[in-house]
Write a structure and sequence with these properties.
Layout lengths: L6 E6 L2 H12 L4 E3 L2 E4 L7 E6 L11 E5 L4 H13 L3 E2 L11 E4 L5 E4 L13 E6 L3 H11 L3 E5 L2 E5 L6 E4 L13 E5 L6 H11 L2 E5 L5 E4 L5 E4 L3
Parallel strand pairs: 1-4, 5-8, 9-12, 13-16
Antiparallel strand pairs: 1-13, 2-3, 3-4, 5-9, 6-7, 7-8, 10-11, 11-12, 14-15, 15-16
């Protein structure tokens, strides 16, 4: 089985501004395309896309959030200072004072963490070390099959996958899972490698996805086994 690239799409009130924030944080170039503003990823790093939001945010989304890595205490502080200077803010999610990671929110309230140095699990993953997701073990196994990314962690109801090329890990924290009350503000986007959208949709449904709708641009919206929306694009 060959691996598939993964893009994480953010609904945003101001896609260009949010894209520029993350471009500056990650040292990437923002590229406008037909679907929004894209930050292409390389060498196993996730691509990010920012599109106009389809629903007003009721509260900051925590179903997906990034973990940025640090090489030293000074590097961690530099990342935090840079983020605050670009419009981020500190976020209190109940973390304890003795915890080494620092929790921030980007300019539109999306949570992300700056992880302390010495985290062995994220060693070698790059600056965008991990996408931490809310979800049970079943979802991690679904996405391992959907992307062709092997499991690199599967213990105590927690799972994580990583591209065979390395780079960003995608992890699911297991129960308890926060109840889903509305359409997710972040979601996965897939573009079939061979361009056969229908074959890709059929394959994903066979793995456990559910068909939801077809967008005006032909994008097929599916849900993973935990009800999280994701898209399969034709191009």
């Amino acid at each position: 089985m060959f691996s598939r690239p993964l893009t994480v799409t953010y609904d945003a009130d101001n896609p260009a501004r949010l894209a520029q924030f993350w471009a500056s944080m990650l040292g990437r170039e923002a590229v406008e395309d037909a679907h929004g503003v894209l930050l292409p990823g390389e060498d196993g790093q996730l691509s990010l896309r920012f599109v106009p939001g389809q629903a007003k945010k009721a509260e900051p989304s925590r179903r997906m959030h990034f973990h940025l890595t640090s090489t030293s205490d000074a590097d961690q502080q530099h990342t935090v200072t840079t983020a605050l200077g670009l419009g981020a803010s500190h976020l209190d999610v109940g973390q304890l004072p003795e915890e080494g990671h620092l929790v921030l929110a980007d300019p539109e309230g999306n949570e992300f963490c700056v992880i302390e140095p010495g985290n062995n699990f994220l060693a070698g993953c790059g600056l965008l070390g991990e996408l931490a997701c809310d979800g049970p073990r079943e979802v991690g196994h679904f996405w391992s099959g959907a992307l062709g990314w092997p499991l690199v962690w599967d213990q105590d109801e927690e799972t994580a996958i990583q591209s065979p090329d390395g780079g960003t890990k995608v992890a699911w924290g297991g129960p308890p899972v926060t109840p889903k009350k509305m359409r997710n503000q972040q979601r996965f986007d897939l573009t079939p490698t061979g361009g056969d959208q229908q074959a890709e949709v059929d394959r994903l449904v066979a793995l456990g996805a559910t068909r939801l709708e077809v967008g005006a641009d032909g994008t097929v919206v599916l849900a993973d086994p935990d009800g999280n929306e994701f898209c399969v694009r034709g191009t």
